[in-house]
Amino acid sequence: MSTYRAIGEIEEEYLRNHPDEVDDYITVLFDEYAETNDTAALLSSLRVVGRVKGVSRIAEVYGLSRKGIQKALSENGNPQFGSVNAIMHAMGYRLSPQKL
User: Fold this and answer.
1) pTM given for the model
2) Would 4 be classed as within a structural domain?
3) What one-character-per-residue DSSP string does 14-77 give?
4) What percent of the chain is modeled with pLDDT above 90?
5) Does residue 54 fall inside a structural domain?
6) How many domains does the chain contain in total?
7) Distance CA 80, CA 9 (A)
């Protein structure tokens, strides 16, 4: 019997094995978001990075509980801009404008 994995699990495994590619992954996910405006896909990808970087550490830096971070990045989450910005900072990144 075959065991199927979700794409997020595959991405997470890949990024754990190739941590030097996390920066490019984040760049691509925000480029895709800029084109598609697909918030669910952006949050899904940020969840993957959060698991790779360690949600507990991010929560500590962000000043929220682990559940707070997970809720902000959940499929049904609707985080405020400030929350996404703070989570990005906690992961070691910043949001910056880029001319179209």
Assistant:
1) 0.79
2) no
3) HHHH-GGGHHHHHHHHHHHHHHH--HHHHHHHHHHHHHHH-HHHHHHHHTS-HHHHHHHTSTT-
4) 29
5) yes
6) 1
7) 26
Asked, for residue 13, whether it belongs to a domain, the answer is no
With respect to residue 78, please indicate whether it lies within any of the assigned structural domains: yes
Residue type, 16: R
Q: How far apart are CA 75 and CA 43, in angstroms?
A: 7
Q: How far is CA 80 from CA 26, 53, 72, 75, 87, in A?
A: 19, 21, 8, 14, 11
| Each residue's pLDDT tens digit, 60-87 | 776 777 777 777 777 777 788 877 887 8
Q: Which range of residues forms the domain containing residue 48?
A: 26-90
CA dihedral 75, 36, 45, 24 (to 10 degrees): -170
Q: How many residues in total does the chain contain? A: 100
